[in-house]
Amino acid sequence: MLCICGSKIESKNCCSQFVSNDAIAQTPVALMRSRYFAFAHSATDYLVSSHAQSTRTSALAQELVDWCAVTHWAKLVVHSFDEQNLSDSLEKNCFTDTQEQLPTVCFSAYYFYQNEFYVMKELSRFIVEQGQWRYLDGESLEHINFGKIGLNKPCPCKSGNKFKRCCYKAR
């Protein structure tokens, strides 16, 4: 079965191995995709552990559990990423939140919430802590509520398919 992150790779060789702690994401894009997978599968322990330590609040775990319980993720689209100078970053722990130029990933995540369809576009920043990539923070670039969409209407993800043959199928 292909991974829900849209990588076109088998799930067991993609995000599943990171969420189950059988492997470590080697790039910010891999971590971001695995976090999407974790949201889609309500793997909140992984979502918390993949956050930067400085952003882990006492309420974070419960917020993630609550959010995962009421959303259904349909599609992830990675628009761009900036992963300059990453060759030795995991070994050297060279990226910290004090640096100005952190690796970024720009993506859109499509999801259902209370029977309405949404897209969230974000520019996320990542750091390395204890030899692993962590999600630091994200800037919301766009958040659109498409409401209820007719099944025969074009899918808002711009795939060119009807809604019923695209994002609605993930529901």
Give an overview of the whole structure:
It holds the Pfam family SEC-C. The structure is a single chain. The chain is an alpha+beta fold. It has a single domain, classed as Nuclear Transport Factor 2, Chain: A. 23% of the residues lie in helices and 30% in strands. It contains 5 helices and 4 strands, in the order ααααβαβββ. It has a 4-stranded antiparallel β-sheet. A hairpin with a 2-residue loop joins strand 2 and strand 3. The chain is globular and about 50 Å long.
Record keyword descriptors for this entry.
171 residues; Nuclear Transport Factor 2, Chain: A; four-stranded antiparallel sheet; 23% helix; globular
How many angstroms does the end-to-end distance come to?
A: 16 Å
**Average of pLDDT:** 89
Strand content: 25-35%
**Spatial arrangement of strands, main beta sheet:** 1-2-3-4
By DSSP, the count of extended strands is 4
User: What does the radius of gyration come to?
Assistant: 16 Å
Helix/strand/pairing class, anyone? alpha+beta
Total number of domains? 1
The number of helical segments is 5
CATH architecture: Roll
Helix content: 10-25%
- The gross shape turns out to be globular
CATH class: Alpha Beta
| Main sheet summary | 4 strands, antiparallel
Oligomeric state of shown chains: single chain
Q: What is the CATH topology assignment?
A: Nuclear Transport Factor 2, Chain: A
Low-confidence stretches: 90-97
Protein name: UPF0225 protein YchJ
Pfam families: SEC-C, YchJ_M-like
InterPro entries: NTF2-like_dom_sf (IPR032710), SEC_C_motif (IPR004027), YchJ-like_M (IPR048469)
Domain YchJ-like middle NTF2-like: 27-138
